[in-house]
Write a structure and sequence with these properties.
The structure is a single chain. 29% of the residues lie in helices and 32% in strands. It contains 4 helices and 9 strands; from the N terminus they run βαβαββαββαβββ. It has helices spanning 10-27, 52-62, 91-106, 136-143, and strands at residues 2-7, 39-48, 66-76, 82-87, 108-111, 123-127, 151-154, 156-161, 168-174.
Length: 182
């Protein structure tokens, strides 16, 4: 699988990585290491064609860096629950996602529907695949007193390959547009 993501800044990368290590040490969770880069995703697909990079470069060149906020923990339910830090949808984040969507979909093979603009829930995954109904209550109790209200500077679009033999960061593009004056 491939994904278009924004990688977190060094400070929040360290915080999320420390949380992953804590969840591994305390609860034996290792599923998160399938994609070992703290990030949130805009689009996921089985594969993208080569023309995608040119369009991503143009979007990155015309998009100014911006800040997003996080707000607590969230959970995707189901037989394999996913625990995450919720990224709050904001005007700049929605604008970028809306700009990306038609380009990404045009170049994607088998895009994942969860990332469509109407249903997209941006998030930073803390645990998946080895999270169960049995261990979930204890894990949430372990984390629930913490504050996950962060300000995240977003300055990149990155093409990641999750299951390509290694965890490749194929392309990391800096957001380099000029911020709008308010």
């Amino acid at each position: 699988m491939y994904a278009i993501v924004s990688l977190l800044d060094p400070v929040h990368t360290a915080e999320v990585t420390a949380l992953w290590q804590e969840l591994e040490a305390t609860f034996g969770l290792r599923g998160i290491y399938a994609t070992p880069y703290p990030h949130f995703s805009y689009h996921v697909a089985e594969q993208y064609n080569d023309a995608l990079i040119t369009e991503l470069e143009e979007i990155a060149r015309t998009t100014a860096p911006f800040t997003v906020e996080t707000s607590g923990l969230g959970l995707f339910t189901g037989p394999f629950p996913i625990l995450f830090i919720q990224v709050v949808r904001s005007a700049p984040l929605n604008a970028l996602h809306q700009a990306l969507w038609p380009h990404l979909t045009r170049h994607a093979q088998k895009p994942v529907a969860y990332y469509r603009p109407a249903s997209w829930v941006p998030h930073i995954t803390l645990a998946h695949s080895d999270l169960t109904v049995g261990n979930l209550p204890e894990i949430i109790a372990h984390l629930c007193a913490r504050r996950f209200n962060w300000q995240l500077p977003i300055d990149n679009l990155t093409l990641v390959c999750e299951h390509c033999g290694s965890h490749d960061l194929h392309s990391r593009l800096a957001l380099s547009g000029i911020p709008e004056v308010e």
